[in-house]
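note to self — DONT lose this again. spent like an hour looking for the file last time. sequence + predicted structure for the chain T wanted, 137 res
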Amino acid sequence: MEEKESVLKFHTRRWIKPEDLNPNGSLFGGSLLKWIDEEAVIYAIIQLENPKVVTRHMSEINFLSSAKQGDIIELGIVATNFGRTSLTLRCEVRNKLTQQPILNIDKIVFVNLNEQGEPAPHGKTEITYVKDRIANR
């Protein structure tokens, strides 16, 4: 399916605390990547309506700036492509108060799995929202 240009929604915020810092006193990249992978898989599970999805690929990770203790950052994720068994997301992280970009990842690919743990078609073709799914029941 052709990639769509979609608007990022920034819903998740993190307050940078001492345990999130590296020896240089800035945000540890490993902590940030863990938060991104967790947020992205939650997004994929909700979009595909299946708790059985796995991370297949992350494209180049671009650290643009850093965050320090006390900063509030926000993660933005949006679906950009629905494959037959996969879902591709884009992610950006920015400082909530200054809007300064911190990181971007152009492609995070998740694969939808069946009960046997094999790739399975998901039948989705566009972003949907839980509130709309509930209203249509």
